[in-house]
Structure formats: structure tokens, C-alpha cells
Amino acid sequence: MSGTSAGSAAAPCRFAHYFVICGIDTETGLEPDELAALHRWLEADRQGRDPDTASAGENFEQSPLKRTFKSKVLARYPENVEWNPFDQDAVNMLCMPKGLSFRTQADQREPQFHSFIITKEDGSRTYGFVHTFYEEVTSPQICSAMQTLYQMHNAEQTNAASSSSSSSSSMDSLASSLDDGYSPTSSSSSSLSRAAGSYDSSRDTLYVSKALCLITPMPFMHACRRFLAQMHSAVIAATAPPLPLESYVYNILYEVPLPALGRSLKFHGIYESIVCQRPGPGELPLADFPLAEAFSLLGVENLVQVFTCTLLEMQILLYSQDYQRLMTVAEGITTLLFPFQWQHVYVPILPASLLHFLDAPVPYLMGLQSKEGTDRSKLELPQEANLCFVDIDNHSIELPEDFPQFPNKTEFIQELTEVLLSFGFSANTGAPPRTRSSPGSTSSTPGRERKSATLRQLEDDGRNGNLAGEELVVLELLQGNATLERLQALTKRTGVTVARVEALRAGVKGQPTDGGNQTGGEEEELRNAKLNVQLREVFASRFTTMFADYESFVIQSAPDLESWLTNREQMHNFDKASFLSDQPEPYLPFLSHFIETQMFATFIDNKIMSQWEEKEPMLHVFDTRIDKARLYNIRAPSLRSSCYQRCSILKESAQAIEQRLMKIDHTAIHPHLLDMKIGQGKYEQGFFPKLQTEVLNTGPSNNKWCHKATTAQRRKDRHRQQTEHLTLDNDLKEKYMQEARSLGKNLRQPKLSDLSPAVIAQTNWKFVEGLLKECRMKTKRMLVEKMGREAVELGHGEASITGLEENTLIASLCDLLERIWSHGLQVKQGKSALWSHLLHYQAREEMLAQQADSPAPRFLERRKSDSSIAMPSLRVSLIQDMRHIQSMSEIKTDVGRARAWIRLSLEKKLLSQHLKQLLSRQALTKKLYKRYAFLRCEEEKEQFLFHLLSLNAVDYFCFTSVFTTIMIPYRVVIIPIKKLSNAMTTSNPWVCVSGELGDSGIMQIPKNVLEMTFDSAFRPHTHISAIFKCQNLGKLTTVQLGHDNAGLLAKWLVDCVMVRNEITGHTYRFPCGRWLGKGVDDGSLERVLIGELVLPSGEDDSARACRTPPLQRSPSQGRHISITSLTGRDTKLNSAQIQEGIGEAVNNIIKHFHKPEKERGSLTVLLCGENSLVAALEQFFHHGFKSARLFQKTVFVWDFVEKAVAYMESADQVGDLQETTEAMKMTCQSLCHYFNAINSTSRNIGKDGKFQLLVCLGARDRLLPQWLPLLVECPVILQMYEDTAMLRDPSTLNTLISVLETLHDFSITLEASLVKGINL
């Protein structure tokens, strides 16, 4: 990753900054680890126990050999480096994350290697590499202290045996013996025979852990590992090393430079030389951790899934007994993110004392050391709604619910597998990932399976220190032989290696060996380096393909850096909507989430800032690759195609590394004798000597490369300061930069030092501020996007949000609410903190309701609906909404229920009100949350609810559109026009409700549901009301209303139909304003009505004023009356207005088809609603229509069509059509065929309904423009139309035909409710 450390002087040029030794301080003796005590205090606090009693005193229940004792930094060289100040607490904590570890001669004492990383406040990183070994304790005080502890422990055990011991929490037990990390895999018989872990100073030898550590600016893991291993070999060898150890430490600290970019470097360890290399400026940045190991630990598919979670900035917790595995997987995953960088908390090894950090309500990537035999199911984590849990040792992962898959995942995994196979690695797939779908699935692999898996793993896993039986015997034989040992030590010093023994030992110790020319170790290293780079190239090539055109969508709006930084928060830097519209459909679910992440935002910020300052190195490499790809024109043909493109530069990338490692560019100065006092630090086998400080604390004064780099750096600094003076004051700029860069980041890193409760409180305060800021940003973004969208629906400007984006924003709001609710929890219950709180609330309210003996809780308020006379009002109840969710069998988990409840509340515009209600029960909040929790910070909580309240200004359908298969109760109310005589009917009415997701089918309404209500003036009103249940219909579009014409009062004058979704409360009004009955109006017994969403009248005027009008306006009564019923025909439109109306109607249909498929809404409204195609054509046909009353009978447009068709049929029979062309004849036949099909339908749809059907079918089958000339040429037109009629004007008719022909490019699908019963 970014290995560049901040600072000046020789920062870029030294290979290692510090050499550190950690271990036991014999002066202070055995001290219990304060951090472990602090951890116990925190744990007790977490669980609501009294923290002071928990952390007081020592932990006597545990065997002293397993307790944590304080380790100290015994020495560090040099004392301090100006550009990388030494952080003693952090280094000590990470060198020995579980404190000192004691063993006796009966325990296994294999040396261990692990690495760590320290991330500073500014995001720069320093790497540490640690070799831990066991050294005999020579101090009699410490041995006797251990003896005393054992006596106290045994006494305690005897007492405890009588009273049953209480079980401690899982986190507590996990931390209290975190120190069991590397327990022996096969205990020897003697250790089994003696009392478990006992110690007797007269009989046993005591050993304690000691750590040698190198701190470097860049992750040269292999080189450091080999140097430290050689250092340890020199300590345990039978004879002293060729030079004093100071010479080697001095050499690596002061005389070994960092390799230059694109160069390799060779330097000398104690017995063998060590080679390392650094990628060139155009290559992927340095990454030395073996990716093959990460892949083999998790399996390819699991690793890709964890990688996807990392890209989407979820919380990722790695879990393993082995620190190095935690580092390997964490560094492996972050390395693969190129060109992006992880922007949040990054602690690959989380020390026991920092466990409270798992409570952080922010994205994090952390590694937790597991205790051997700890069951995953016992691990209590504060929040799991958005957690990806990676159990490295069991090769399994648990994924958050419903997160999008990485694009082309299958082909991608295939390509990675092939790369691994080409290097001889079996691409095992690991255990299949588990999602948190049901309570049962949280436990890890069932016992027997796990045991056999572990055994298998131990049998064939060289990393666990196991070899095949025969090899082990050979090695034991060789190691037991003193002569052979001496021979081997001798040959090793002269540079010769006994390869077979070394190979065996490498298998056992897990550390590579190395010798002569291209030994096995070097070959292995080369192979690993080549595999690393090829795997990384495959990942990088995915991003190069996906973001090949990202630059086109970057918005460069600021004239200079200063103004950009000042307005950073208000600016849109990336055109997300256009970018997404340019991507292949299958990529969208992933990309729409990814472009909302902090890492993508930072990447775009770096791109914008690169026009004023030097390009960030990773961005530079990425841009170069994109330019190269463009040059070869790789992208153009596959634009918008989801076709998988394989990486084409695998060979080149591996060759570059091979050339560097085969041909060494630079060799460092050899270690040499230093000018030091003789006799100090005398060699003693098995003990690390005390090094001479004065020689190691200062480096050489005349170092050429160091001096060169320093002057270059000074020159650079001077130049930078001059340019800064020209732009703006340096401090001010730094402040801007920090603020701009920390935008959206709540807290980069936990401090590893100074862990007083005050510091922890301050950290929590930062979290609270960060959560509030995030809430403000998210709600603002949701509002701006949504309002922009509604403005577009009204015809202003361009759309800026898609349904997909909206879904992404809502999902991220759900995630934020989960994180807020899990901050500062007293005791965790269930996977979703929010749902758990709701359940507590529900239980309490229901109990109170029972005590009060009232059937429903008291706090219900009623929402009046617009048609308050007809519709009974729907009560507002948090618990009622919960019950709706609980009754949905489709949702299986608590996290799913919480998300569904948030969506429902958002759609009902009750989210803020419900949460306020939930938090108003303060006693409950106090019981569930600690004092520092976000939900107990009064001022922040109020602001948070206010931000959520702002979302009520826009309409969401986020519940209706997501849960498409659930059953929903709908209430239908039919309102007659308010004359009592017309309101009564003796016939049997029926309705069929249709929506975007389907229709309800025909439902008969029983006669006895006629209700009478009185308005405020006590005037009686009757209406028919019924409730029915059916599968979610989505947004409602049409209602078919009809009756069977039975009885004496069969004619019925209907004002409108109201339909309400009883779960979301959305009410739709379907205006009618016409008669249903034979011999009245157009004789229709059924009508298709088009709906509009009704505003709840509960909204006050201010809310109404700021709202945008509803999206669907349906035909009002006025439209029907003005066109078709005789009474309204006086309000005639002129020909220009009619033509404009037709143009607009056709335009709206074309716009409909240009929207993404999932966001088109209802086509029926555009065909048959207000200002629709049918309405516009009715106006056209009515222009100049002779509507004379023949004996009071109304004439309809359908009558004209009927006569025209009758004329054509008779003419065809007589033979008048013989001389017409074949095409004309076909058109004639099609018109007659359609007309007869509509006329002979069993439905009683009336004349206007038939005309509507003819227009819709004609538009669907692209026949409408062909039929019009036929109708005009019929002699009937002369009888029924004036000379001035538009239909008789050839030029107007031709214009109309050409306008209608533009619809031929689209395939029009008619709703089932329109064409029911038509047999064509």
C-alpha cells in the first residue's frame, strides 16, 4: 500500500527506521498487564456489570502460565527518527499483542513471525516485522514470583472447587487467554502427564517470550523475515556469529538504502545475502505479502466475496489464531483494491485492550486473534447487520444480507483459478459463504465436520508445523545428533547449505531458507512474487475495464484549488447518473453502491486535485493504463457490453519482476566491524545480548545516497513552499486540505496508545459527531436527488436519479440507522439492534395496554384521508406497522425486518415520527444503551430526527416496489354522484383493480355493503365499501367498474372510485362522472377508469406548498363530459389546440420508452388518461362533428366508425373495391376485422369504451395511420362532418398520420384490463 512516510530529510532512502527489542523487564519483574485489566473493565461495562469489581485485583482463576503480563520495549535503535517519531505504546502493543508469554521446557517453543502496521492520523503507514522466540528466565526473583503465583492459584482452585464458578463472558474469556494463540498442535506425553500447565521452580526451567522487530517505511516482508530469522539463528547457534550483532543491526539501519523505483537491491544478513525489489513508476505499487496464501486460506470465491464487501465499505472482521494470517489476508485484500484505497479504520491486528473498538459505528477492517477452541457462535459482536465475518482458520466467511455481487463474478473467479493453477496452487474454494439468513446458520461448521476439517488441515498443512510422518522422523533424528548439528552450523557459516535438512526445517518452521546461487528459498520467493503480481493484475484489469471512461464523468467546476477546497462539500464532483446510464445492465447493482463509497469519492477528489498538484502515484499508474488501453482501442467495440475481458499483460508483469530479481541492480555495503568497546555484549548461546547503544544511535555522517536524497528533498520542499506562498498561506492550505480530505471520514484510526477512559469517551464523542454528519449528508442527498427527479417529471431539466440509485441511497440509510442503533449498546440481542429495540418497545406497550385493559395502545392518532366522508381514517401506529412486517413470511431475519420497517415508515412519511415515539420511552433507552451512546445524546438525537423529518417532503415507494410478492389488503369505495335517486342501484356491482405489478381479478361486491354517512351539514351520503386481499399490485393504474344491469334501478351514476392500500396508506382516486346502464349515456355497463394518487389531507398547508404535484394525473370528470357527453360539447377547442394536444400525447409516449425499463411507470395513463392519445384523438374526431339530436338520441364517434365499416363491407361485397390496390384491400379488411372483434365482445363497454379500444389496438399493431385515410374516403363523412372539420382537411390529416407513425419504433404492450375479452 502507500508505503511513503511523511517527513523530510532522508525519509525516502532508509530501508529500516528502527530495530526494537521487546520482552520482560527484570527490574520491574512480573506486572499484570494493565491493558488486560482495562479490557476487563471495558468488558464488564459493556455487559452492565460493575466494572470496578471486575478489573480489581489479579485474575487468580487462570493458570499463571496463561495470564497476560506486561511486556516492555527493552531497547530501540536509534532513539528517534525525526520523520517517523517512535510510538512506544503502539509498537509494544503490536509486537506482543497479548503481552509476555511464559513456557516451561515441556511446552513447545517454536519461534514465530508476524507483521503489523501502524496507520497514522494522516493515513500514512509504517510496517513492523516481528520475530518472537523464547529465552530462558535467569532472574531468580521472576522464577520465585511465578512459583508464588502458582501456590496462590492452587489455593484459589481448591476453594473454587467447592463453589461452582460463574461463567465469564465470551469476549472476556477470549481476551483473558488470548495468549494461547500458538498453543502446540501436538503436546508431548510429558506435558499431558503433569498437571495442566503447572510450574515448579526446583524441577522446571522457565522460558519467556522476546521479540525482535524491524520497523520499515515499506512492506518488504520477505527480506525482513529472513533478516530476523538469521538474527535469531545467530543467537542460538553453537558458535558466535562472524561479526558482533551490532554490525548487522547498524548495517540494516544506516547502510542499506531503500531500492530505487524499478530496481532491485541485495544486502547481507548474518549468514546469507537477502534480495528485495521495488516496482517501477508504471507498475502496481509494492506488495510483498503472499497473495497465494490468502487465496489458499479462504478459497478463491470467498476471497472475491470479502473483496466485494471491502469495496462496498462494510465492516470486515478477520478472525484467526495466527497474527501473520490476519496480516496476510488484510494486506492482501487492501492491495487488491488498486487504484482505490481503504479510507476507514484499518487495524489488521486488534490488541485485546482495543476490543471496544468493535463497537465502532463506522466501516472498519480489523483482525481479531481467536483463542484455540473458541467457538465462533460464542463470540458476541456489537453489531452484525453489516458485518462480513471472515473465519480464516476454518476457511469460511459469513456475509451481510443482500449485497450486490461483483460484476462477471464467475468468469473472474475462473481467470483467478487459472492463474493459481499455472503456478501449481490448487485453487480450493474454501467453505461456501454463509449469509446470516436464519438464527441457526450463525453457528460455525457442525462439530464433527469441523473436527475432521481441522484434522485434515493439520495433516496436510505445512504452515501448521506438520510434515508427513516419515519426514518428521528424519528431521528429529538429524536434530538429535550433536555431531550433525555442529557440522551443519559450520557449513552454514561457510555459505554452504545442507539443502535436504534445510528444506525439512523450512517445512517445520515455516521460514524460507536460502544459500548459494538461486536456492530453493529464492526460487520460492521469485515464484511468489510473480504469482502476486499476476493475481493483482487480474484485479486491476477489472477496474481498468469498468472505469475506462471515468474521466468523461468527472465534473471540473472550480477555477483553482482554494475555491475547490472551500466549496468541497457543496460540489458534485462526479456525474453518477450519466455514468450509470453508460454501464452494462448486469454491472449496475454493484456500481450504483460502489460509486457512493468514500474510497471512490477520494479517488475522484485526487483526480480533480491532480490538475493543481502532483498526481497521486496510484492514480498516475491507473490513468496511464487507461490511456494505453485506449491507444490499443480495447474499449470502444465493447462499450456498454458486459462481455468479460481477460487481463492481457500477465506475462509482461511477471517478466519485469523476474528480470529485477535475476539481475541485481544495487548491492549495499557489507556489514563491518564498528568502532566499539570490547567485551560488552559477550556472546552467550540462546540469549540475545545487550547491544551497545552509543554505536547504534547515530548513523554515518558521510553517507552519499542519504545526502543526495536529502538535498533533492530540500530542493523539492523549497519549491513547494514558494508555490504555496503564491496561492495561499501554508497553514490555511493545510487546514483546508485536512478538512477536505476528512470529509465523510468519521475517524481514520484508533490511537494504540493512551487508553484511559477519558480517551475512550472522546473517541465515542467523535463517533457521535460523525454519525450525525453522515445522517445530514445522506438525507440531503436523498432529498436533492428525489426532488430533482420530480422536477423532471414536471418537465424541468434532466433526471438525476434512477430507481437503482434511489434503492442504493435507501439501503445506505438503513445501514446508517443500524449503525446508530448499535452504538453504545449495553447488551447485544439479535443481529439487528434497531429491531431488537422495537421488539422491547412492542412488548412494553402491549403489556401496558393489557394492564389498562384497553384493546389498543393509547397513542394512536388518526390520519384523515382526502375522502374523509367515504374512507374510514387509517390509524397511525408504530406497533401496527411492526405487526404488518411480522406477518410477512417472506422476511426471515431480524435485519430484513428492520429494513422492511424502515422502508414502510419512509413510504408512509412516518419514519421520523415513529423513531421519535420509540425514543420517547426514556427508561427503555436507558436500560438498553450506555451513557455515551448516540441515542442518549439529547441534542444530537433531536437534530437526527429533524434530518429524517425532511424526507417527508418527497414521495417514496420504497416498500411497495421492493416487497412485490406480499399479500396486501385493499379497501375499495364506490362513490355515486350525490343525488339519492341516482345513488341507489339494484344491480350487482363488480370491480377489478390493476397496478404496475398485476391485477386483482374481478371481485363481486355484495349488495349489502351500501353505507350511509353524514357530512358536517348532516346531509346523507351513500357509498359502497369493501375490503379484499391480493398480492401486491404496486402503484395502481386502472380500475374496471361494472354491474350486471339487474333489477328495476339498474342505471347508476358514479362519481368516482377510491382504492386504498391498507398497509402503506396510499389512496388512489379513479374519477368517473358517468352513467353505467343500458339506454343511458353511451349504454356502457362497465368502464375502465384511470387513477391518480391522493394527497393525505393530514399534511398541513406548508407541507403541501413545498410538495411537487403527483406524477399521474388521470382523466377528470371534466374531460369525459366535455368530449363525449352532450352537455359539455359547448367547450370546443380550436384546431391549433387539438393538434398541440395530439403532439404532446405522442411525445409523452415516446419519452416513456426512452426511460430505463424499470422506471417507466404506467403506459395506460398515457394512452387513456387525461391528455392521453385517446383523449386527443377524440377531440380530433369531434371537431366539426354534426351532433344533431335525432329524437333526443346522442350521436357518438363510434357511430361514424360503425357506418364507415358497414359501407366498406357492403362495397366489398358489391365489388366496388376491386380496382383498389392490394394494400388498401388488406387495410380495409383489418379495420373491419378489428371493428367486429370489438363489437362482438361479451363486455358491455359502451360506445366511448369501444372507440378507446380501437385506438389502443390500432396503436399497438401499428395500423392507426393506415385506417385514417379509409375513414376519410367513406361517403359517410359528408353526412356526419362539416366542411371545416379537421378530418376533412388533407394537409391536417397527413400531419396527423406522420405524427402517429413515429410510434411505430416502439412496441406498445396493453394492460390486460384494457383488452380483456377481445378475440383477435
UniProtKB/TrEMBL annotation:
InterPro entries linked: cDENN_dom, dDENN_dom, DEN5A/B, DENN_C, PLAT/LH2_dom, PLAT/LH2_dom_sf, PLAT_RAB6IP1, Run_dom
Biased composition (Basic and acidic residues): 447-463
Parts forming coiled coils: none
SUPFAM superfamilies: Lipase/lipooxygenase domain (PLAT/LH2 domain), RUN domain-like
Segments passing through the bilayer: none
Domain UDENN: 53-614
The name this protein goes by in its record: DENN domain containing 5B
Native source organism of the sequence: Astatotilapia calliptera (Eastern happy)
